[in-house]
Amino acid sequence: MISPSAIHRLLQQGQLSQKGGEAKIASDPQSPSAHLIGICGSGMQALAELLSGLGYRVTGSDLQPLSENLALLQARGLRVHQGHNRDFVPGEVDMVVYSPAVQADNPERALARELGIPQFSYSEMLGRLMADQVGVSIAGTHGKSTTTAMTASILDLAGRDPSAILGAEVLSRQSGGWSGSGNLFVVESCEYKQSFLDLSPQHAAILGIEPDHFDCYPEVEQAVDAFRQFAQKLPADGSLIVRGDCRNTMAACQDVAANVETFSLVPGMDWWAADIRRSWSGTRFRLFYKGDFFAEILLQVPGEHNVLNALAATALCAGLGLTAAEIREGLGEFRGIARRFEEIGSWRGVTLVDDYAHHPTAVAATLQAAREEFGDRRIWCAFQPHQISRTQILMQDFSESFSNADRVLITPIYAAREGTATESTDVARELSDRIARQHSQTRFCGSLDQTIATIEDEAQPGDVLITMGAGDINQVHHAFTRRLQRNHTPRRAAGAPHVFETGGTSSVLRDTEDPRRIATGHTGLSRERDVVPHLGRRLQSAHR
Fold first, then answer.
1. Does 141 count as an annotated binding residue?
2. Distances, alpha carbon 160 to alpha carbons 145, 150, 403, 485, in Å
3. Torsion of CA 535, 538, 541, 543, to 10 degrees
4. Would you say 425 is a known binding-site residue?
5. What is the CATH number assigned to the segment(s) 342-485?
6. Which of 10-14, 256-260, 361-365 is predicted with the least confidence, judged by mean pLDDT?
7. What's the pTM value of the predicted model, to 2 decimals?
8. What digits encode the pLDDT tens for the residues 404-413?
9. 8 among the known binding-site residues?
């Protein structure tokens, strides 16, 4: 990773300067500073954590209310402000970094222009940090965050100590970004507005290309062309791992100088999986490389979509010189990332699961994993669509993606960069009506409060509630877990493990015990385990 002193040297040489004047230099040459506008975004927060680990003095601002994770950043010495104001920019700062949602007329950006402080978008900053490193980029419509986390975790456990940036919290680290002492920089690389073209990786993966981000790619061919440009940036001695059974992906990797290898669940690819089966702790499968057995893998994360993610991570790590044993161990230890089929806990015997799925393919894959995970238990899916354009264009695909849910609740669209509140509600109602034609147990809830009230009134012990969406739908779970923290008194037999304090299944289950026996139906639940161990991570701060 490029060091703080190297950044300072580039500033002195003017290599980080932009139009508008020379950069101001921090008084301490070993402590460069950065001000992050839009720091509440998951990627920006990860960048703040990485820069802080490098020794930067980091400040930031965001319109959104400060989250618990950002409170942790503040506890580490970062100054984070709510709202945007010229006064929030420190008197001497080396650079301003802004999220894609922050426009040029932002008052803090305007001040930076006046003072000649260089400004970089989030992806431009990642590109500059990658410049002195061996870049490993993971791109594609689905699975980027998980595959990035898998890859970084495998490399870390193998002693390669990579730096990493991804748009979600790695559960084992409670962080989405960190700086390592090794020369590898593993980055989740997003195609939105072609931002991944700011990166120059030596190794990359494209996990698949589907219609998405309609505000910048009205036609899928435009997205394919962006991915083609990304693939062509790889050097001849680099490597590219691609989803071999995705037509769009294969079209994007033509005429690429780097070595290309394919992966899929379909035999005949360079990397493929066979004998995929559920185990009590996750998913087990056999992994093959060019026809030869490579390793047997046991994942702690469920679903065939995670088998695909593991294949891509394996191929990347093998290309970086890791052995089959190192990869097998790294994947086996991987616990997942936040908001990707994350079991939050339980409330009144209802298992709470949170997921980021906001595309029909991801919704269907997550609900399929849930059906495999929870069997015939009744599954509630509270879905918050993300972006009006995506919902309108993929309306039919969305309407067909909820077949594995028993109850479906649709909330108004989290519109993000577009539309009005009325339009958000009207389009969401249309989606609810379309789903209801195929799935009678579907209804529209006009707010998150109404969603919570519906679940309170109708959910039964043994049910599973999965919240889905890229917006604030996870606040539904937070409402329930806050009540648990206020009101729940754990009961246990004398000498029994403190389930509420450990946060890990190993402390409460024998190796031969199936944790899914904790709740296998609508009745007969053990009151001793009214909160499953996954909730421990969120409750730890309350116990401290």
1. yes
2. 20, 14, 43, 39
3. -20
4. no
5. 3.90.190.20
6. 10-14
7. 0.76
8. 999 999 999 9
9. no
